[in-house]
Specification:
The structure holds two protein chains of two kinds. Chain A is mainly α. In chain A, 69% of the residues lie in helices and 0% in strands. Chain A has a single domain (66-293), classed as MetI-like (MetI-like fold, Orthogonal Bundle), CATH 1.10.3720. Chain B has a single domain (59-294), classed as MetI-like fold. Chain B is an all-alpha fold. Classes of the chains: A mainly alpha, B mainly alpha. At the A-B interface, helix 1, helix 3, helix 4, helix 5 and helix 9 of A face helix 2, helix 5, helix 6, helix 7 and helix 8 of B.
Chain lengths: 295, 301
């Protein structure tokens, strides 16, 4: 089939538009990379730097010598690893139980787990509750509240349903306990869905910062990388008020964190996500499809 | 019955951790909602504080700040809906019209990426791009002669909403087309062939085949979005606003945070949060009811 001229013009415009759109998405990333390798003195509003004038690793050297940044990186990694582990164990166990359609009280239990999805107490009651539980300034506050999610549990359960019942029965006849069946048959067979949910949770944990600000604000040893970046942003926003009062104030707008160090920290925050991005793409899309179709 | 329970014992044990977590972190905080009706004193605890009835709600409805944040919330969520929705649909159609599978993949790979970043990172990007001391946007505008001095965009209160909407589109568009592309991929291709034979051009095929096929998904998404009308997310606003833009940027959730965590007015702040949650719940319920009417296959869970 021959394409009409109009159709061909549309194709070219479309491709051009897509390229422009991709560049738009890409610019902030490129900008931060350039900054992180630049000298602080080379950054000014008078020039657009497509590449650093002089390449330097100063900002990264600073980051890797700064105990606060290194510590925050460790805390972020820890909460991601522990948080994801707890989440997977708790959700898989719940999902396995919820596959028993004839279990007594199944409906009641499902309702108990489901209601919080529609109504939550809110920010302040949650804070007072954490305080009462003694979880303020405690690492557990990063991994326990996010330990269970009904949404992920249902996705895992739907996958469990698709596993051949025969295998379970055979193992049961051979005398395997439920725990044994769960750990050595169900879990190994469910690797794809576990990988999906784990990646999901890893991104969530790595990106979390609000719990840090709410519950662990005052404990330096529990500061995560995201919150550290957020605080750098704060020191920037604090200066907006001065800047708003007059253009001449801009000269005085000297930040406590030079732009280049902030850029290098941003790279440290974004890099792990970029590294697992190929996996994310593969599983995430599948994940939302499972959620959408089987719902 | 006893035998049944015994048989299922391991399964109940498997459910223990999840039930414990839900009780600890979802049900126990609900007791704290009582302070919305009390004069909360930290030293006396939730139980020991005196009842004040609906006083906090009376204060709330006479507080001019409340109407400002409510107005901002509605304005921002409606404008978000009006921008993301058409942009998502058009972008889906355009991506779908790309002939090369490979190029389509590349476009999707690049445009998804921002979805996986936190709003802290996106906020950092925005501040940096719009910065008056080295931001790309100021540099371009000055080179072009549009501006003669650098402008601090983030401190302009009229700029907040546009900046918010653009950042939101930047972060979400690439990802939100996924669900629509899946719907399109389920269209029977013979329909397009038949239409071509009948003389339909490309535009006709988009208008009469692709768009109608997307319609049920569009309805569901639209209705669900309406359900979250009074709950503009905390993250995007909190990471883009500052004292200079409170007037146009402050939404209910950020107001709750500042009243509660910064000014320590726990009781009043809880009352605002309760108001928001109840209205949200009602809207979600209504929206779900409509979604089920519009699409019988649609289920909440």
């Amino acid at each position: 089939m021959k394409k009409s001229i109009g159709s061909r013009i549309f194709d070219y415009c479309n491709i051009l538009f897509m390229i422009l759109f991709c560049i738009t998405v890409f610019i902030p990333f490129w900008d931060v990379v350039v900054r992180s390798f630049s000298r602080a003195s080379d950054i000014s509003y008078m020039h657009i730097n497509l590449l650093p004038k002089v390449w330097t690793l100063d900002a990264y050297k600073y980051c890797f010598q700064d105990n606060e940044i290194l510590m925050a990186f460790v805390v972020s990694v820890l909460r991601t690893v522990v948080g994801t582990g707890v989440h997977i164990i708790v959700c898989c166990m719940a999902a396995y139980s919820l596959t028993r359609t004839d279990m007594p009280f199944r409906k009641t239990i499902t309702a108990i787990l489901l209601i919080p999805m529609f109504f939550s107490a809110g920010m302040i009651p949650a804070y007072l509750n954490m305080k009462r539980l003694g979880l303020l300034n405690n690492f557990l506050v990063y991994v326990l509240p996010s330990g269970f999610s009904i949404y992920n549990t249902i996705i895992i359960r739907n996958y469990f349903f698709s596993i051949d019942k025969g295998m379970e029965e055979a193992a049961s006849i051979d005398g395997a306990s439920q725990t044994k069946i769960f750990t050595s048959i169900i879990m190994p067979l469910s690797k794809p869905v576990i990988a999906t949910v784990a990646l999901w949770q890893m991104v969530g944990q790595w990106n979390a910062w609000f719990d840090n600000m709410m519950y662990c604000r005052r404990t330096a040893s529990l500061t995560t990388l995201q919150y550290l970046l957020r605080r750098m942003l704060d020191s920037l926003t604090a200066s907006t008020t001065t800047a708003a009062s007059g253009v001449e104030a801009i000269g005085a707008l000297v930040d406590t964190n030079p732009d280049t160090i902030k850029a290098a920290t941003t790279i440290l925050v974004v890099l792990p996500i970029v590294l697992i991005y190929p996996f994310l793409q593969k599983y995430f899309v599948k994940g939302i499809m499972v959620g959408a179709v089987k719902g | 019955m006893k035998k049944e329970l015994k048989k299922y014992m391991p399964f109940y044990l498997f459910l223990l951790p999840s039930i414990a977590l839900v009780i600890l972190f979802c049900y126990m905080p609900m007791e704290g909602l009582l302070i919305a009706f009390k004069d909360y004193k930290m030293a006396r605890g939730i139980e020991g504080s005196d009842w004040v009835g609906l006083q906090h709600f009376k204060d709330l409805f006479t507080d001019p700040n409340f109407y400002r944040v409510l107005g901002n919330t509605l304005k921002i969520s409606i404008l978000t809906l009006l921008t993301t929705f058409p942009v998502t649909i058009i972008f889906t159609l355009l991506v779908n019209e790309l002939a090369s599978k490979r190029f389509k993949g590349v476009v999707q790979t690049i445009t998804y990426m921002p979805h996986f970043l936190s709003w802290v990172v996106v906020g950092t990007f925005v501040y940096q791009l719009l910065s008056p001391t080295g931001g790309v946007v100021n540099a371009i505008l000055i080179q072009l002669g549009v501006l003669d001095k650098p402008l601090y965009f983030m401190a302009q209160k009229d700029m907040f909403v546009p900046i918010y909407l653009i950042s939101n589109l930047w972060k979400t568009t690439g990802y939100s087309i996924v669900i629509y592309l899946a719907t399109i991929s389920s269209i029977d291709t013979s329909m397009y062939d038949a239409a071509s034979i009948d003389g339909a051009n490309r535009f006709h095929r988009i208008l009469y085949i692709t768009l109608p096929a997307m319609f049920p998904t569009m309805c569901t998404m639209l209705i669900l979005n309406i359900g979250s009308l009074v709950s503009v997310g905390f993250d995007p606003v909190f990471n883009l606003y500052n004292d200079a833009t409170y007037q146009t940027a402050d939404v209910i959730s950020t107001y709750v945070y500042r009243k509660g965590m910064v000014e320590s007015r726990y009781d009043f702040s809880t009352a605002i949060g309760l108001f928001q949650n109840v209205v949200s719940l009602a809207l979600v319920m209504i929206a779900n009811w409509f979604a089920r009417k519009a699409n019988p296959e649609y289920k909440v869970i």
